[in-house]
Protein 1
Amino acid sequence: MKRVLCFSIALLMLSFINIAAGKPQIVSVEGDDAFSNTIEAVELFGGMQNFVEPGDKVGILVNSGFREKGAYVNPDVVIAALKMVFDAGAEDVVFLQHIKPEYWERSSLEPDYREYIDRARTIEANEFPSEYDEENFVKYSGLEGAVHLEEIETVREIFEVDVFINIPIAKNHGLTLLTNSMKNMMGLNTRATNVKFHLDGPSRNDPDFLAQCIADLNLVRKPDLIISDVMEVIVTNGPGGPGDIVSPNRVVAGFDPVAVDAYCADLVGFFIPDVLTIQKGYELGLGNKNYNELEILETKNE
Amino acid sequence: MIKKILFTALTLMLCAFVYTQQAVDILPKDDRWQPTHDIIAYEGDDLFFLINGGADLYYEYGFADVAAANYSINDSGSLYTEVYRMDSDDAAFGIFSLRARNVVPHHKTEDGTYAMGSDYIHVWKNNFYFYISASGIETDEISKMNQLAEAIMNSIPGKAGIPEIKNQLPDNYSGFAYIKGPIALSNVYSFGHRDIFNIKEGLWYEHNDKQVLKFFYDDNEQAANTFKNATDNLKSTQRLTNMKVSDKSFTGIDRQSKVVEGKVENNTIIIEIAAKPVMMD
């Protein structure tokens, strides 16, 4: 009871700080429990009802497709998001990239929240290495301002959902150094489209070309909410791992993909100028790479 | 004379056979090992359709083709394997060393070199690298994974070799990796997206509480010039703080507060990174 009271007082104080300092643009909650960190992060933005209205259709994109610890989003983060989305009154929730059933088994919370998991749909056709079909994908050429990308094959429902929530993990990638919010968007595309990012540049796997394609792709739709898993993440041998793990024990939420990526890059010890996607996204006007200019709320979840 | 010619011809034919045998030919397909689905095989650029992130690394080393299969062990358990045929023995060894760098010790046998965890095994033999992962298998059945590894190793022709580069390792090293380019380097330590060390061949290993990187060059002059350019880059980008530079060495502190020391010796650039961060005021 005492703990609940302390927690409520802490939240109240934080809300006060929030009001006093203006609306935060990034919140970063530290604590051992990924589930409560996620809940608190969204609460600090005023709760999921600020993003989801009753009857809404919500699309969620999760980086779930890896096996090694620190290479996939902690499923407790996703379960917390699902709970909040349904509790806010969402009518239809769809995982925009397929999540395999065994993913949920990695969470000890799975039995308690099975009902929420079962209520969400998943686009099975968008499972690596996804192939274009007219039912599930569209050929989209409306990326206004894109430098390289002219047409992409991307999942149809990204244009149909009322709310789009991006849930990446801030980890290492051999070619982009960091993969987080911006790069996670590649999970919306067919494999054929993503392969072009690697091969259609001036040379194979050109880091500059790849980073620009990722920035271009982010023009397709800006997430309404980003919830980034920065609990335990690999900082070498990415994206698949196994690699060296750092444990910032944080869940970071925001709306600005460039700022969230820059903030998370700092958290895991990457040098921001080394992460080309951040620079390209900034140049394209997708967000602010100088995250220190934003209102940031950092809290500890005891 | 005729005997000699015949012997040479036979040897050449055998070599050609060894290097043209594709990954799909290596996978066992007999009464004991029956794949549960069709074997998946890719070559060239199609590797991107097998690997979700990280295919670029295989191309950097030199990739030829790959085959993947699943073998059922009991009602719920299975073994999944991917066999990679690389362009050379060095390329396969490089991928093995990087994939298994956190899995020590590495065991050398006549059939190949392997490193294993509780439910996976990485193996290198000649120009092949493969790994097997087990799922849904009880501990007492995990020997099946080793038996499958043995079956695959036996299908790879030739006697397993040892790469020369291993002679560069000191005694009592822990993890190590053989590096063939900037993508491999960024898998162990990042100096940014530019290939400031112009890497062609190098080594990463852990020794005496330090990570050590060694980059090898054709001659002393090339090493010295590359070192100077890399040092200038590190200074101008401020990737390292508290940087002190002298003629053939530098020190600085990286973004994870670890001391980084660099020097050039003959045709080799040596970088040492402290394992633990320094205490900052």
Protein 2
Amino acid sequence: MSRESNNFEILSAYLDGELSPKENEELEAKIKSSLELQKKLEDLKKIKKLTSDSFKPLSPSPFFETRLFAAIDSKKSWYKRILKWSPAIGLGLAAAILMVVLKFSPQVFENLIEEQKSNIAGFYKENLQPLMYTADLNNEDIFNFAMYKKLPLDKEDKQFIHLGEDKAGKEFFEIKSETPKQPENNFEKFVVALELNEIQKDQIDSIINQYAVELENQILVNNDNTLALNSNLWNYQKAIQTDLLAFAETSNKQKFHKFVPTTVSISSRPQVVNNVQKVRTTKHKGYIVLTPDSIFSDDIDYDPIKLQLITMKEKEAELEKRNQKLLTETERLKEIQFHIKYDSSWKKLHDSKSWSKNFNITFDTNRCKVEISEFDFPEIYFPDHDSLMRAIDSVAMNFRLYSKFIPKIEYFDNKIKIEIESDSTNSYEFDYYEFNLDSLVKAEGELIDSLHMYNWHNFNFFSDSLVLKSLPKLKNYLRYYDGAEEFREQMKELSKEMRKFREEMSEWKNEFRKEWDHNKDEDNQR
Amino acid sequence: MNSNSKNEKLNQPQILKLDDDFSLIKRFIDGDDSTFRLLVQRHQEKVRNIIYLTLSQSDVVDDLAQEVFITVHKNLKNFRFESQFTTWLYRITVNKCKDYLRKKNVRKIFVPIKEADEKPEYTSSTETDDITKIVKEAIAKLPYKLRIPLLLKDIEGFSYQEIAETINCEMGTVKSRIFRAREGLKKILQPIESELM
């Protein structure tokens, strides 16, 4: 680069204000003394001005920002997409891991489910107490359990449990509602019917008391509406029934055959006692546990009260104190209110089909029936029990008929009156002309929607046990209620009349039109 | 007294405003994506103008500016705070323009001469009498390496230092190129010098 060119370059930088003060000073001195530099500076200034003036800033682009961020979003979308699908990728990975795990140890889930089941089972099994405390069972209750296979679940006898076996011999149990009724005093009637003397009365009392203690741990309940039935309960029922009848036969054979066919004999009492003993001595931890949201079978090792009693015996010094404590505890236990609400939560249980395949629950407004298809019931062999059971069932039925008051039925022109002595809840009047289904149902102690009743009658789909209970009476009376036939006849008549009226109207209309046309023609002619 | 207080003021550490470029970048790095929009709003016009000046074409300005900011967005998390954000931004802008021109020149080899020999839009014949357009035409004829420093200086008002950083060369080179650009421009405009000056 020539010296001249270098000077001009500095001149250009001078013009741009890029020289140091010292350089500025030196250059300015040179410019003053050089016309060439002065001219060059002028040229450069003109060029600089031309350049500076040549461009005006671009007008802003209103959509630049929008486009830019859309582009940025689309640029990073590949990884955004991955992020968006990351849960799915995670799930996919988890599924792959699960597949691998399950391939090599397929029992992982089963173990997990079992663990959860045992947790739930543990929750419901907590605080289970003998039914004796909650329902305050007495001799009458035990006797009814033996004869009619039913036990109350609460003190007010609002609900009871009913054991049974179907035709195929499979066990089931039902929980039913029962309106508070006057005590039937079946046990007392049984004692009176047999004309037992004082010693025999004591004996039968003692037998029942023994069973009461035995039954204590067979049915457990708690505040979480859990009901646990021991698998041996069905055997206990048979045992108590057989034992009581065998005792009755031994005590007073003549009176016994007032309600048992003479062909039936339960005379081999030692054998019965022997087998009953087997029922008592065989310990079964297997319980069927019915909870508001599940039904399962599980082992429950329940014997706390007995253990406590043994401890008390061993420590006689503390007896009084402990006894007091036990009494308080017993009182507290008696306070437990037990009531199964099978109109709500158990309904869900039925709908969800979540119960074990071993149990089948049928359900309506009056009962909850649990059929047990597969369960390890302890088998105690009672000799000739099958034939005996049929006789015993008839005994139970006969005894009930024998002991029950026969209702007094009076027929009137417009009503029927059924009166049961000393039982106003089961006595009622039924007026043919002022039919009120609810009153009929009320007679059974329960209020059922009358529409349901009517639907049930017509379409036979509402198979509610409470309704079925009313069926025999309803069948007799519903003919007075069903006016459908008469109504249909009336409608037919009305329909005929309407058709006739329509025809007449049509004729009249035609005549009117003819006349109108005729008049019109005449007017035109004029 | 006055001079003392002035010195005190100068000696005080510079307090960064919450919305200066560095603060915005830090917030962006910390995960606040919204600050990028602020950076774009602040610098988009400068970037667009540099592209326009560099390429003398307005139709590609927005596309290239978009590419510039996408590149910035992609790399901003790796920004090292060693230079001004603008220096980095303008360097990216100039490089994008260079890339564009390089691709365009490659394309020129393969397209018919008439199409490839496109003139800058401001050189339309209807506007030849307009001094501004004549000057623009003259600037457009300058070689790229001279044109960019000249325009960054005279239009955008960059310092030689900033230009050197932007186009990644020595300050002396910038000084020389700007002078040479002016010399070249004078030669191009010489035929109509009397009208212009």
